[in-house]
Amino acid sequence: MNAFQHFAAQHAALHARHVLDEPARRAGRRPPSDIERKTFEHVRAHGGRTVAEIANALGVKSPELYAPLQRLKTLGHIKPNGTSGAITWRAA
């Protein structure tokens, strides 16, 4: 077995194991968390709400929503609406 064949065999074995072990994490993707799903559903159903209003409706504290909102924004599912101090969120 030459060096290229050895590399190709290792690559194939690693890829096969990776695909079977963690299919949702392939290529940097991960499944949405429960709070992300709830946040997205609420924003989609009730657009134009602030973080405090969303948190109150979901029964969580506002700081718990900042990461899920940013991830949903990065993925293009929601958009901020407004200026600093009065930002509301709506579905994209």
UniProtKB/TrEMBL annotation:
Basic and acidic residues: compositionally biased ranges: 18-42
Region (Disordered): 15-42
InterPro entries per record: WH-like_DNA-bd_sf, WH_DNA-bd_sf
Gene3D superfamilies: Winged helix-like DNA-binding domain superfamily/Winged helix DNA-binding domain
Keyword vocabulary terms for this entry: Plasmid
Residues in the signal sequence: none
Annotated protein name in UniProt: LexA repressor DNA-binding domain-containing protein
